[in-house]
Please model this.
Amino acid sequence: MDMQDLLADIAEEAKSAQPAGRVAHYIPALADVEPSRFGIALAYPDGHVIGAGDWRRRFTIQSISKVFALVLALAHRGDPIWSRVGREPSGNPFNSLVQLEYEHGIPRNPFINAGALVVTDLLLEHTDQPSEMLRDLLRVESGADDIDVDMAVAESEFGHIDRNAALGHLMADYGNLRHPVPQVLHHYVRQCAIAVSCEELARCGSVLTRHGMRADGSRLLSRSEAKRVSAIMLTCGAYDAAGEFAFRVGLPGKSGVSGGVMAVVPGRFTISVWSPGLDRRGNSVAGIDALDRFTTETGCSVF
Ligand code: GLN
Model:
């Protein structure tokens, strides 16, 4: 089947089904979205994108931003970051405090919230505006100059920040955050609230598909660093459901609580999906069903 036809078919199937899962509600502004939304897009390394459904409608990037923050941290801080954040699956929910206490404030990986806060702290050593830096990367890689923070979502999350603040303060106590916790939270929340469409997200993820090369042909990450980011997506990208994601989809992927998922077929294409209904671990139900069907029917996985 032609790729465009397959995406259209997947979108049609998702749109005609009853919306599955539950829209995130712990950030109140996220609950405002229609559960029946579904978009899917596929970007080739040369920038050509195809898509179906709501592939041009924006949603907040949420935890998928952690991939791009890690990319920037590796590009600007390099290997020393690994003394402050691990690269093992956590097996715990993305905002869990439990492991952090008995592992002395060193988060298991950069894709759980604690790890992402450390990455933001590391970026603050390089720039005093890390969320703007991330936004600018997304603007340039997608070619969409108007990508920006959705302030309603950011403010809603600031109003419900206690758990992330607790993670930040615990790590600060262990000496693993060097900047004031409110400053780190400010940039972390803003980076999560950047609004992108499936089309734009797929274009941005092509940095990994191209093994570290930017859209303009310049190098952002070494081939080895790009491999490492994708490897951490495979093992940690869906939090405590990373095993299930690898089992069903078989690709490096990263999910977010707005219902977005970005997955990479290294060297071939980036695929992004969005559907707001989540399972109990915070991953998009229809999004993962769609990726499962896509890799099963095309045989395009890393396995
Ligand atoms: N901004 C969200 C939070 O910190 C991101 C979580 C997610 O997408 N899993 O809770």
